[in-house]
Amino acid sequence: MIHFEGGKILNVSVWGDVPPDADLVDAGDSVVMPGLVDSHVHVNEPGRTEWEGYETATRAAAAGGVTTMVDMPLNSIPATTTATAFEEKLAAAEGKCSVDVAFWGGVVPGNVNELAPLVERGVRGFKCFLIPSGVDEFPHVTEADLRIAMPELARLQTVLLVHAELEGPINRAAASIANRDPREYDTFLRSRPREAEDAAIALMIKLCRETGARVHIVHHSSSDSLDLLRQARNEGLPITVETCPHYLTFAAEDIANGGTQFKCCPPVRERENREKLWNAVADGTIDMIVSDHSPCTPELKTQNTGDFLDAWGGISALQFSLPVMWTNFRSRGFGLTDLTRLMSEAPARLAGLDDRKGKLASGFDADIVVWDPNAAFTVNPELVYHRHKLTPYSGREVHGRVEAVYVRGELVYNCGEFAPQPSGELIT
Ligand SMILES: [Zn+2]
Hints:
This protein is of the alpha/beta class. It has helices at residues 54-63, 83-93, 112-121, 143-155, 167-176, 185-191, 194-211, 226-234, 245-249, 271-282, 321-332, 336-350, and strands at 2-5, 8-12, 31-34, 36-41, 66-71, 100-103, 105-106, 126-129, 159-163, 214-217, 239-243, 288-289, 368-378, 397-407, 410-414, 417-418.
């Protein structure tokens, strides 16, 4: 039994000690679990709200059992790379959120003096790219830029999230695909080889060792660098790793021509790669699983031409992380404690929220998801609360229906209905 009051959990106990004046909700046979913490979400507001905004993203989060999400510093305009830009983002998000939202800042060339003010104002850490990000207002950093920024991040005791792909191997790959059909998934896959990730991981391990800054690898895909990461961990370096549901669910061999809803960077790779990622989840090399929800307008996904090279790279699936991963877990021998560890506790720790989020324990926020692990449903556009309905999970049968979601004790979602007023807080 979970007893909460004033938004906080008072205690978690066995049945039998209901105070006479308490409101009692019986969850029946459903699972009662800490809400998911999704530390990798691109909301895009302000500036690209037509791609996704706070209202739609946080409703989708609530419907998917995500009670806290951490917004990426791009693809909003302005990007969250200065304290002034962060104020604009906070103003844009204010009053619109159905779940709690925290924020990452960005490291770009030349903004080292903004890092301390951003931390002061409440960002949970910083994201950078080692390769063009896809949007002009968020340029990527070089090793030289990182040698300036990372000592400052170490001084600030904050974390650097890294999009780990390097340009060299990708530029070399470009020549080899020149005459290939851009509608074939294999063409796109060849354009983003594993070597690009592997070289970037090696660079970040080196810089982590030299600067002492905490490093977190986002959306890890290449199984070829898992051993490098294992060695770095054994060495005691402060490096953590996330992967995403799509890398653990899909396989390149199964993606049809023109299926640009599957395009993301780094790409979904071969089945053999996927199985090695699962081994890394099992042995703890991969610390967490988060969505990397990165939507755009349907036009930018170029479904009309099916051209993988033109399409925006980003997968839209924030709402379905819980059922998708539970469906995988059931068939692979993982349990509910793994789900909570990988999708609530670890991302909360990454974002420095592990004193209040990600656990059902006394003193923590009463962020709770009640869900039926046996209920099956088919993902279809009518169920989707994201601004745009295109998702690679469409048509897939999954297990795990979210029934009720509480954020700091407030019922924000209940079997398809949302609370009349959004009550999510901006965490700064
Ligand atoms: Zn991302």
